[in-house]
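Anyone able to model this chain together with flavin-adenine dinucleotide?
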Amino acid sequence: MSTRSPLIIGAGPAGLTAALELVKRGVTPRLYEASGEVGGLARTPCLHGWRVDAGGHRFFTRSEAVLDIWRSLLPADQWVAVARRSAMLVDGHHVRYPLVGRELLTQLGLRSGARGLGSLAWGRLRHRMRRTARESFEDWGIGEFGTHWYGLFFEGYVRKTWLADPSDLTSDWANQRIRPIRWRDADGFAARDVFLYPRLGPGQLWEAAAAAAADGGAVLSLRSPVAAVRSSGGGWTVELENGQTASGDAVFSSMPLRMLVDALEPAPPQRVRDAAAALTHRALITVGVALGQRHELPYNWVYTPGPEVRVGRIQNYTRWSTELSPPHWHGAHLGLEYFTTSGGDLWAASDDEMARIVERDLRVLGMGAGTVERMMIVRSQFAYPVYDPAREASVAVIRDYLRREHPSLRPMGRNGMHHYDNQDHAMLSAMGSVARYFGEDVDPWGVNTDLRYQESGLLRM
Ligand SMILES: Cc1cc2nc3c(=O)[nH]c(=O)nc-3n(C[C@H](O)[C@H](O)[C@H](O)COP(=O)(O)OP(=O)(O)OC[C@H]3O[C@@H](n4cnc5c(N)ncnc54)[C@H](O)[C@@H]3O)c2cc1C
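re: yes, here you go
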Protein backbone atom coordinates (compact mmCIF):
# COMPACT_ATOMS: atom_id res chain seq x y z
CA MET A 1 0.00 0.00 0.00
CA SER A 2 1.17 3.49 -0.81
CA THR A 3 2.26 5.66 2.12
CA ARG A 4 2.10 8.73 -0.04
CA SER A 5 -0.69 11.21 0.69
CA PRO A 6 -0.39 14.20 -1.69
CA LEU A 7 -2.68 17.22 -1.53
CA ILE A 8 -3.60 19.21 -4.63
CA ILE A 9 -4.73 22.83 -4.63
CA GLY A 10 -7.03 23.68 -7.55
CA ALA A 11 -9.04 21.50 -9.93
CA GLY A 12 -8.19 23.25 -13.19
CA PRO A 13 -6.18 21.59 -15.99
CA ALA A 14 -3.00 21.44 -13.86
CA GLY A 15 -4.63 20.10 -10.68
CA LEU A 16 -6.69 17.50 -12.53
CA THR A 17 -3.73 16.37 -14.63
CA ALA A 18 -1.65 15.96 -11.47
CA ALA A 19 -4.50 13.90 -9.99
CA LEU A 20 -4.68 11.67 -13.09
CA GLU A 21 -0.92 11.15 -13.11
CA LEU A 22 -0.86 10.26 -9.40
CA VAL A 23 -3.75 7.84 -9.77
CA LYS A 24 -1.95 6.23 -12.73
CA ARG A 25 0.99 5.57 -10.39
CA GLY A 26 -1.21 4.05 -7.67
CA VAL A 27 -1.43 7.10 -5.40
CA THR A 28 -4.76 8.67 -4.43
CA PRO A 29 -4.59 12.44 -3.91
CA ARG A 30 -7.04 14.81 -2.24
CA LEU A 31 -7.95 17.91 -4.25
CA TYR A 32 -9.28 21.21 -2.92
CA GLU A 33 -11.01 23.54 -5.37
CA ALA A 34 -12.08 27.05 -4.34
CA SER A 35 -14.98 27.36 -6.78
CA GLY A 36 -18.05 25.21 -7.27
CA GLU A 37 -16.87 23.66 -10.55
CA VAL A 38 -13.87 22.03 -12.18
CA GLY A 39 -11.82 23.25 -15.15
CA GLY A 40 -10.43 26.52 -13.73
CA LEU A 41 -10.15 29.11 -16.51
CA ALA A 42 -11.12 26.34 -18.95
CA ARG A 43 -14.42 25.62 -17.21
CA THR A 44 -17.71 25.88 -19.15
CA PRO A 45 -20.53 27.15 -16.94
CA CYS A 46 -23.95 26.10 -18.24
CA LEU A 47 -27.40 27.57 -17.59
CA HIS A 48 -30.55 26.22 -19.25
CA GLY A 49 -28.50 24.78 -22.10
CA TRP A 50 -26.42 27.97 -22.67
CA ARG A 51 -22.72 27.31 -22.23
CA VAL A 52 -20.05 29.98 -21.82
CA ASP A 53 -16.39 29.35 -22.63
CA ALA A 54 -14.68 32.15 -20.71
CA GLY A 55 -11.87 32.57 -23.21
CA GLY A 56 -12.53 30.57 -26.36
CA HIS A 57 -10.23 27.61 -25.75
CA ARG A 58 -8.56 26.11 -28.78
CA PHE A 59 -7.04 22.70 -28.18
CA PHE A 60 -3.65 22.33 -29.82
CA THR A 61 -0.31 20.99 -28.68
CA ARG A 62 3.07 19.73 -29.74
CA SER A 63 3.05 17.09 -26.97
CA GLU A 64 2.10 13.51 -27.73
CA ALA A 65 1.63 12.85 -23.99
CA VAL A 66 -0.94 15.65 -23.70
CA LEU A 67 -2.76 14.43 -26.78
CA ASP A 68 -2.92 10.91 -25.30
CA ILE A 69 -4.64 12.27 -22.19
CA TRP A 70 -7.16 14.26 -24.25
CA ARG A 71 -7.91 11.18 -26.37
CA SER A 72 -8.27 8.95 -23.31
CA LEU A 73 -10.76 11.31 -21.64
CA LEU A 74 -13.17 11.99 -24.50
CA PRO A 75 -13.99 9.64 -27.38
CA ALA A 76 -13.42 10.90 -30.92
CA ASP A 77 -17.11 11.67 -31.48
CA GLN A 78 -17.06 14.21 -28.64
CA TRP A 79 -14.52 16.43 -30.43
CA VAL A 80 -15.21 18.81 -33.26
CA ALA A 81 -12.56 20.10 -35.65
CA VAL A 82 -12.99 23.85 -36.02
CA ALA A 83 -11.48 25.94 -38.80
CA ARG A 84 -9.92 29.01 -37.25
CA ARG A 85 -11.34 32.21 -38.67
CA SER A 86 -10.58 35.37 -36.77
CA ALA A 87 -10.54 39.02 -37.65
CA MET A 88 -9.77 42.45 -36.28
CA LEU A 89 -12.44 45.11 -36.51
CA VAL A 90 -10.59 48.25 -37.63
CA ASP A 91 -12.28 51.35 -39.08
CA GLY A 92 -15.43 49.31 -39.72
CA HIS A 93 -13.55 46.61 -41.67
CA HIS A 94 -13.08 43.01 -40.62
CA VAL A 95 -9.40 42.43 -41.36
CA ARG A 96 -8.46 38.77 -41.33
CA TYR A 97 -6.11 37.73 -38.51
CA PRO A 98 -3.42 36.31 -38.67
CA LEU A 99 -2.65 39.21 -40.96
CA VAL A 100 -2.39 38.52 -44.68
CA GLY A 101 0.04 40.69 -46.68
CA ARG A 102 -2.03 41.19 -49.83
CA GLU A 103 -5.15 42.12 -47.82
CA LEU A 104 -3.19 44.66 -45.77
CA LEU A 105 -2.14 46.32 -49.00
CA THR A 106 -5.69 46.76 -50.32
CA GLN A 107 -8.43 46.27 -47.74
CA LEU A 108 -8.06 49.58 -45.89
CA GLY A 109 -7.35 51.56 -49.06
CA LEU A 110 -4.23 51.74 -51.21
CA ARG A 111 -2.87 54.75 -49.33
CA SER A 112 -3.01 52.94 -46.02
CA GLY A 113 -1.45 49.87 -47.68
CA ALA A 114 1.46 51.88 -49.10
CA ARG A 115 2.02 53.60 -45.76
CA GLY A 116 2.01 50.25 -44.02
CA LEU A 117 4.55 48.78 -46.41
CA GLY A 118 6.88 51.76 -46.10
CA SER A 119 6.76 51.79 -42.33
CA LEU A 120 7.25 48.02 -42.25
CA ALA A 121 10.48 48.28 -44.24
CA TRP A 122 11.73 51.11 -42.05
CA GLY A 123 10.64 49.37 -38.80
CA ARG A 124 12.45 46.15 -39.74
CA LEU A 125 15.65 47.97 -40.67
CA ARG A 126 15.67 49.98 -37.45
CA HIS A 127 14.90 46.89 -35.42
CA ARG A 128 17.80 44.98 -36.93
CA MET A 129 20.17 47.81 -36.09
CA ARG A 130 18.93 48.44 -32.56
CA ARG A 131 17.78 45.05 -31.29
CA THR A 132 18.26 44.59 -27.53
CA ALA A 133 17.98 41.41 -25.46
CA ARG A 134 15.03 42.71 -23.40
CA GLU A 135 12.81 44.74 -25.64
CA SER A 136 9.39 46.17 -24.87
CA PHE A 137 6.26 44.98 -26.63
CA GLU A 138 6.13 48.29 -28.47
CA ASP A 139 9.67 47.92 -29.86
CA TRP A 140 8.96 44.34 -30.83
CA GLY A 141 5.65 45.26 -32.51
CA ILE A 142 7.10 48.13 -34.53
CA GLY A 143 10.01 45.92 -35.57
CA GLU A 144 7.67 43.14 -36.64
CA PHE A 145 4.82 45.11 -38.26
CA GLY A 146 6.07 48.69 -38.79
CA THR A 147 4.59 51.74 -37.05
CA HIS A 148 1.44 51.98 -39.20
CA TRP A 149 0.18 48.41 -38.93
CA TYR A 150 1.40 48.06 -35.34
CA GLY A 151 -0.63 51.19 -34.50
CA LEU A 152 -3.74 49.99 -36.33
CA PHE A 153 -3.85 46.42 -35.06
CA PHE A 154 -1.81 45.95 -31.91
CA GLU A 155 -1.25 49.16 -29.98
CA GLY A 156 -4.92 49.74 -29.04
CA TYR A 157 -5.65 46.07 -28.54
CA VAL A 158 -2.72 45.50 -26.21
CA ARG A 159 -3.58 48.67 -24.30
CA LYS A 160 -7.17 47.49 -23.94
CA THR A 161 -6.43 43.89 -23.05
CA TRP A 162 -3.23 44.24 -21.01
CA LEU A 163 -4.36 47.53 -19.44
CA ALA A 164 -0.83 48.83 -19.71
CA ASP A 165 1.31 50.98 -21.94
CA PRO A 166 2.89 48.66 -24.55
CA SER A 167 6.28 50.24 -23.81
CA ASP A 168 5.99 48.98 -20.19
CA LEU A 169 5.34 45.37 -21.20
CA THR A 170 8.04 42.88 -22.03
CA SER A 171 7.84 41.14 -25.39
CA ASP A 172 8.81 37.60 -24.36
CA TRP A 173 5.25 36.28 -24.93
CA ALA A 174 4.75 38.06 -28.24
CA ASN A 175 6.81 35.72 -30.45
CA GLN A 176 4.89 32.76 -29.03
CA ARG A 177 1.44 34.24 -29.48
CA ILE A 178 1.41 36.64 -32.41
CA ARG A 179 1.78 35.25 -35.86
CA PRO A 180 3.86 37.19 -38.39
CA ILE A 181 2.23 38.61 -41.55
CA ARG A 182 1.70 35.90 -44.18
CA TRP A 183 2.83 36.98 -47.60
CA ARG A 184 2.55 33.63 -49.38
CA ASP A 185 -0.01 30.79 -49.47
CA ALA A 186 -2.34 32.55 -47.03
CA ASP A 187 -5.39 30.64 -48.30
CA GLY A 188 -3.65 27.27 -48.17
CA PHE A 189 -2.53 28.07 -44.69
CA ALA A 190 -6.01 29.19 -43.58
CA ALA A 191 -7.46 25.92 -44.91
CA ARG A 192 -5.03 23.96 -42.72
CA ASP A 193 -5.55 26.16 -39.64
CA VAL A 194 -7.86 23.85 -37.75
CA PHE A 195 -8.08 23.20 -34.02
CA LEU A 196 -9.95 20.77 -31.80
CA TYR A 197 -12.77 21.56 -29.45
CA PRO A 198 -14.94 19.43 -27.15
CA ARG A 199 -18.58 19.51 -28.29
CA LEU A 200 -19.74 20.99 -24.97
CA GLY A 201 -16.80 23.32 -24.49
CA PRO A 202 -13.50 22.86 -22.67
CA GLY A 203 -15.23 22.13 -19.34
CA GLN A 204 -16.50 18.86 -20.84
CA LEU A 205 -12.92 17.58 -20.95
CA TRP A 206 -12.14 18.67 -17.41
CA GLU A 207 -15.38 17.21 -16.05
CA ALA A 208 -14.33 13.91 -17.69
CA ALA A 209 -10.89 14.27 -16.07
CA ALA A 210 -12.46 14.81 -12.63
CA ALA A 211 -14.65 11.73 -13.12
CA ALA A 212 -11.66 9.61 -14.20
CA ALA A 213 -9.58 10.78 -11.22
CA ALA A 214 -12.48 10.02 -8.85
CA ASP A 215 -12.80 6.53 -10.40
CA GLY A 216 -9.15 6.02 -9.52
CA GLY A 217 -9.81 7.00 -5.89
CA ALA A 218 -8.94 10.72 -5.88
CA VAL A 219 -11.12 12.74 -3.51
CA LEU A 220 -12.25 16.16 -4.76
CA SER A 221 -13.72 18.84 -2.50
CA LEU A 222 -15.41 21.76 -4.30
CA ARG A 223 -16.08 25.16 -2.65
CA SER A 224 -12.96 24.54 -0.57
CA PRO A 225 -10.59 27.50 -0.83
CA VAL A 226 -7.23 26.83 0.78
CA ALA A 227 -6.33 29.67 3.16
CA ALA A 228 -3.09 28.42 4.75
CA VAL A 229 -0.33 26.02 3.68
CA ARG A 230 1.65 24.93 6.71
CA SER A 231 4.94 23.09 6.75
CA SER A 232 5.53 20.89 9.79
CA GLY A 233 7.91 18.03 10.54
CA GLY A 234 8.70 17.31 6.89
CA GLY A 235 4.97 17.15 5.98
CA TRP A 236 2.23 19.60 5.05
CA THR A 237 -1.10 20.71 6.45
CA VAL A 238 -3.49 22.79 4.39
CA GLU A 239 -6.19 24.75 6.13
CA LEU A 240 -9.37 25.64 4.31
CA GLU A 241 -11.20 28.93 4.75
CA ASN A 242 -13.81 27.09 6.83
CA GLY A 243 -11.13 25.96 9.29
CA GLN A 244 -10.96 22.30 8.20
CA THR A 245 -7.47 20.89 7.78
CA ALA A 246 -5.85 18.05 5.84
CA SER A 247 -2.32 16.72 6.08
CA GLY A 248 -0.07 15.05 3.53
CA ASP A 249 3.49 14.42 2.41
CA ALA A 250 3.46 16.88 -0.54
CA VAL A 251 1.43 19.77 -1.90
CA PHE A 252 0.86 20.34 -5.63
CA SER A 253 -0.34 23.92 -5.97
CA SER A 254 -2.03 25.63 -8.90
CA MET A 255 -3.30 28.57 -6.80
CA PRO A 256 -1.73 31.89 -7.85
CA LEU A 257 1.95 31.89 -6.82
CA ARG A 258 1.53 35.21 -5.05
CA MET A 259 -1.33 33.79 -2.92
CA LEU A 260 0.67 30.66 -2.16
CA VAL A 261 3.53 32.71 -0.74
CA ASP A 262 1.03 34.71 1.34
CA ALA A 263 -0.55 31.48 2.63
CA LEU A 264 2.76 29.82 3.57
CA GLU A 265 3.45 29.16 7.25
CA PRO A 266 5.95 29.82 8.63
CA ALA A 267 6.07 32.98 6.54
CA PRO A 268 8.95 33.13 4.04
CA PRO A 269 11.63 35.85 4.37
CA GLN A 270 10.67 39.43 3.52
CA ARG A 271 12.49 39.43 0.14
CA VAL A 272 10.40 36.42 -0.98
CA ARG A 273 7.19 38.12 0.17
CA ASP A 274 8.24 41.29 -1.66
CA ALA A 275 8.85 39.27 -4.83
CA ALA A 276 5.38 37.73 -4.50
CA ALA A 277 3.78 41.15 -3.96
CA ALA A 278 5.26 42.27 -7.31
CA LEU A 279 3.29 39.61 -9.23
CA THR A 280 0.05 40.96 -10.64
CA HIS A 281 -2.85 39.62 -12.71
CA ARG A 282 -5.44 40.83 -15.12
CA ALA A 283 -9.04 39.78 -14.72
CA LEU A 284 -11.55 38.88 -17.39
CA ILE A 285 -15.32 39.25 -17.51
CA THR A 286 -16.96 37.17 -20.21
CA VAL A 287 -20.56 37.91 -20.98
CA GLY A 288 -22.44 35.19 -22.86
CA VAL A 289 -25.18 36.85 -24.91
CA ALA A 290 -28.00 35.22 -26.87
CA LEU A 291 -29.40 37.51 -29.55
CA GLY A 292 -32.74 36.62 -31.12
CA GLN A 293 -31.51 37.84 -34.47
CA ARG A 294 -28.89 35.90 -36.38
CA HIS A 295 -25.77 37.85 -37.42
CA GLU A 296 -23.75 36.41 -40.24
CA LEU A 297 -20.32 36.75 -38.69
CA PRO A 298 -18.01 34.39 -40.58
CA TYR A 299 -15.44 34.30 -37.76
CA ASN A 300 -14.90 32.32 -34.56
CA TRP A 301 -13.82 35.49 -32.88
CA VAL A 302 -13.29 39.17 -33.64
CA TYR A 303 -10.83 41.50 -31.92
CA THR A 304 -12.21 44.97 -31.23
CA PRO A 305 -9.19 47.21 -30.53
CA GLY A 306 -10.97 50.56 -31.03
CA PRO A 307 -11.81 52.92 -28.15
CA GLU A 308 -15.48 53.25 -29.23
CA VAL A 309 -16.38 50.01 -27.41
CA ARG A 310 -15.19 48.60 -24.09
CA VAL A 311 -15.31 45.00 -25.25
CA GLY A 312 -11.90 43.66 -26.32
CA ARG A 313 -12.84 40.49 -28.17
CA ILE A 314 -16.03 38.77 -29.23
CA GLN A 315 -16.42 35.00 -29.42
CA ASN A 316 -18.95 33.67 -31.90
CA TYR A 317 -19.89 30.50 -30.02
CA THR A 318 -22.06 29.02 -32.75
CA ARG A 319 -18.93 28.70 -34.88
CA TRP A 320 -17.06 26.87 -32.11
CA SER A 321 -19.71 24.25 -31.47
CA THR A 322 -23.47 24.42 -32.06
CA GLU A 323 -23.85 22.48 -28.80
CA LEU A 324 -22.81 25.53 -26.78
CA SER A 325 -26.39 26.73 -27.39
CA PRO A 326 -29.65 24.88 -26.66
CA PRO A 327 -30.95 22.64 -29.47
CA HIS A 328 -32.83 24.40 -32.28
CA TRP A 329 -31.40 27.82 -31.43
CA HIS A 330 -31.37 29.98 -34.55
CA GLY A 331 -30.18 33.32 -33.22
CA ALA A 332 -26.64 34.46 -32.41
CA HIS A 333 -24.74 33.29 -29.34
CA LEU A 334 -21.75 35.47 -28.53
CA GLY A 335 -19.19 35.80 -25.75
CA LEU A 336 -18.05 39.38 -25.12
CA GLU A 337 -14.71 39.57 -23.33
CA TYR A 338 -13.93 42.52 -21.06
CA PHE A 339 -10.40 42.85 -19.70
CA THR A 340 -9.91 44.49 -16.33
CA THR A 341 -8.10 44.21 -13.03
CA SER A 342 -9.56 43.30 -9.67
CA GLY A 343 -9.20 46.99 -8.73
CA GLY A 344 -10.83 48.24 -11.95
CA ASP A 345 -14.27 49.78 -12.44
CA LEU A 346 -15.46 46.88 -14.59
CA TRP A 347 -14.59 44.38 -11.88
CA ALA A 348 -16.64 46.37 -9.40
CA ALA A 349 -19.60 46.66 -11.82
CA SER A 350 -22.81 44.92 -10.76
CA ASP A 351 -24.58 42.55 -13.16
CA ASP A 352 -27.01 45.34 -14.10
CA GLU A 353 -24.20 47.80 -14.82
CA MET A 354 -22.38 45.16 -16.85
CA ALA A 355 -25.57 44.48 -18.82
CA ARG A 356 -25.82 48.19 -19.70
CA ILE A 357 -22.19 48.27 -20.90
CA VAL A 358 -22.79 45.19 -23.03
CA GLU A 359 -25.98 46.60 -24.55
CA ARG A 360 -24.24 49.85 -25.43
CA ASP A 361 -21.34 48.01 -27.06
CA LEU A 362 -23.74 45.86 -29.07
CA ARG A 363 -25.53 48.98 -30.26
CA VAL A 364 -22.27 50.66 -31.32
CA LEU A 365 -21.31 47.47 -33.17
CA GLY A 366 -24.67 47.44 -34.92
CA MET A 367 -25.81 44.22 -33.34
CA GLY A 368 -29.31 45.18 -32.23
CA ALA A 369 -29.08 45.24 -28.47
CA GLY A 370 -32.87 45.28 -28.35
CA THR A 371 -32.98 41.60 -29.15
CA VAL A 372 -30.85 40.35 -26.22
CA GLU A 373 -32.69 37.28 -24.97
CA ARG A 374 -30.26 36.04 -22.37
CA MET A 375 -27.09 37.16 -20.66
CA MET A 376 -24.70 35.16 -18.50
CA ILE A 377 -21.80 36.89 -16.75
CA VAL A 378 -18.68 34.85 -15.95
CA ARG A 379 -15.92 36.51 -13.93
CA SER A 380 -12.31 35.23 -13.81
CA GLN A 381 -10.20 37.16 -11.33
CA PHE A 382 -6.83 35.56 -12.18
CA ALA A 383 -7.13 35.33 -15.94
CA TYR A 384 -3.69 36.54 -17.02
CA PRO A 385 -0.37 36.64 -15.18
CA VAL A 386 1.03 40.08 -16.04
CA TYR A 387 4.36 40.19 -17.89
CA ASP A 388 5.99 43.36 -16.66
CA PRO A 389 9.76 43.78 -16.33
CA ALA A 390 9.63 42.66 -12.64
CA ARG A 391 8.05 39.29 -13.37
CA GLU A 392 11.00 37.13 -14.34
CA ALA A 393 13.22 38.13 -11.42
CA SER A 394 10.36 37.91 -8.90
CA VAL A 395 9.36 34.43 -10.04
CA ALA A 396 13.01 33.31 -9.88
CA VAL A 397 13.34 34.51 -6.25
CA ILE A 398 10.24 32.53 -5.22
CA ARG A 399 11.13 29.46 -7.30
CA ASP A 400 14.66 29.26 -5.86
CA TYR A 401 13.40 29.73 -2.31
CA LEU A 402 10.77 26.98 -2.66
CA ARG A 403 13.22 24.59 -4.32
CA ARG A 404 15.72 25.06 -1.50
CA GLU A 405 13.45 25.26 1.55
CA HIS A 406 10.35 23.32 0.49
CA PRO A 407 11.12 20.77 -2.22
CA SER A 408 7.88 18.88 -1.48
CA LEU A 409 5.77 21.99 -2.22
CA ARG A 410 5.28 21.90 -5.97
CA PRO A 411 3.87 24.92 -7.83
CA MET A 412 2.44 24.09 -11.26
CA GLY A 413 0.27 25.56 -14.00
CA ARG A 414 -0.47 29.03 -15.34
CA ASN A 415 -0.99 31.05 -12.18
CA GLY A 416 0.77 28.49 -10.02
CA MET A 417 4.02 29.42 -11.80
CA HIS A 418 2.91 32.87 -12.95
CA HIS A 419 3.51 31.95 -16.56
CA TYR A 420 1.44 32.73 -19.68
CA ASP A 421 0.54 29.07 -20.27
CA ASN A 422 -2.01 27.31 -22.40
CA GLN A 423 -3.78 24.20 -21.17
CA ASP A 424 -1.14 21.87 -22.55
CA HIS A 425 1.64 23.74 -20.74
CA ALA A 426 -0.31 23.67 -17.47
CA MET A 427 -0.71 19.92 -17.98
CA LEU A 428 2.96 19.42 -18.79
CA SER A 429 4.12 21.25 -15.67
CA ALA A 430 1.72 19.10 -13.61
CA MET A 431 3.06 15.94 -15.26
CA GLY A 432 6.63 17.10 -14.60
CA SER A 433 5.82 17.88 -10.96
CA VAL A 434 4.40 14.40 -10.42
CA ALA A 435 7.40 12.80 -12.15
CA ARG A 436 9.69 14.75 -9.86
CA TYR A 437 7.68 13.61 -6.83
CA PHE A 438 8.61 10.07 -7.90
CA GLY A 439 12.29 10.99 -8.09
CA GLU A 440 12.61 11.65 -11.83
CA ASP A 441 15.01 14.33 -12.94
CA VAL A 442 12.68 16.74 -14.79
CA ASP A 443 12.23 20.46 -14.33
CA PRO A 444 8.59 21.59 -14.47
CA TRP A 445 9.78 25.22 -14.54
CA GLY A 446 11.30 24.50 -17.96
CA VAL A 447 7.87 24.03 -19.60
CA ASN A 448 6.85 26.72 -22.11
CA THR A 449 10.17 28.54 -22.14
CA ASP A 450 10.67 28.00 -25.86
CA LEU A 451 10.09 31.42 -27.39
CA ARG A 452 9.17 30.20 -30.88
CA TYR A 453 5.65 30.68 -32.25
CA GLN A 454 3.60 27.96 -30.56
CA GLU A 455 1.30 26.83 -33.28
CA SER A 456 3.85 25.37 -35.64
CA GLY A 457 4.45 21.62 -35.62
CA LEU A 458 1.11 20.82 -33.99
CA LEU A 459 -0.14 17.31 -33.47
CA ARG A 460 -3.62 16.31 -34.57
CA MET A 461 -5.95 13.72 -33.05
C1 LIG B 1 -9.13 34.42 -22.29
C2 LIG B 1 -8.37 33.13 -22.23
C3 LIG B 1 -8.22 32.39 -23.39
C4 LIG B 1 -7.51 31.18 -23.36
N1 LIG B 1 -7.39 30.47 -24.52
C5 LIG B 1 -6.75 29.29 -24.50
C6 LIG B 1 -6.67 28.49 -25.67
O1 LIG B 1 -7.17 28.87 -26.74
N2 LIG B 1 -6.06 27.28 -25.60
C7 LIG B 1 -5.50 26.83 -24.44
O2 LIG B 1 -5.00 25.71 -24.41
N3 LIG B 1 -5.51 27.59 -23.32
C8 LIG B 1 -6.12 28.79 -23.32
N4 LIG B 1 -6.18 29.56 -22.19
C9 LIG B 1 -5.36 29.16 -21.03
C10 LIG B 1 -5.98 28.11 -20.13
O3 LIG B 1 -7.23 28.56 -19.64
C11 LIG B 1 -5.02 27.90 -18.95
O4 LIG B 1 -3.74 27.61 -19.43
C12 LIG B 1 -5.40 26.76 -18.04
O5 LIG B 1 -6.73 26.87 -17.60
C13 LIG B 1 -4.46 26.78 -16.83
O6 LIG B 1 -4.75 25.72 -15.99
P1 LIG B 1 -4.31 25.77 -14.45
O7 LIG B 1 -4.87 24.55 -13.82
O8 LIG B 1 -2.87 26.01 -14.37
O9 LIG B 1 -4.99 27.08 -13.84
P2 LIG B 1 -6.50 27.51 -13.68
O10 LIG B 1 -7.27 27.15 -14.87
O11 LIG B 1 -6.42 28.93 -13.27
O12 LIG B 1 -7.02 26.62 -12.46
C14 LIG B 1 -6.62 26.87 -11.15
C15 LIG B 1 -7.71 26.40 -10.21
O13 LIG B 1 -7.27 26.61 -8.86
C16 LIG B 1 -8.35 27.11 -8.09
N5 LIG B 1 -7.81 27.85 -6.94
C17 LIG B 1 -7.18 29.05 -6.94
N6 LIG B 1 -6.86 29.41 -5.67
C18 LIG B 1 -7.28 28.41 -4.88
C19 LIG B 1 -7.24 28.19 -3.47
N7 LIG B 1 -6.70 29.08 -2.63
N8 LIG B 1 -7.77 27.04 -2.99
C20 LIG B 1 -8.34 26.11 -3.81
N9 LIG B 1 -8.41 26.29 -5.16
C21 LIG B 1 -7.88 27.42 -5.68
C22 LIG B 1 -9.11 28.00 -9.07
O14 LIG B 1 -10.46 28.19 -8.65
C23 LIG B 1 -9.01 27.20 -10.36
O15 LIG B 1 -10.09 26.32 -10.52
C24 LIG B 1 -6.90 30.74 -22.16
C25 LIG B 1 -7.07 31.50 -21.00
C26 LIG B 1 -7.79 32.68 -21.02
C27 LIG B 1 -7.95 33.48 -19.76
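The radius of gyration is 23 Å.
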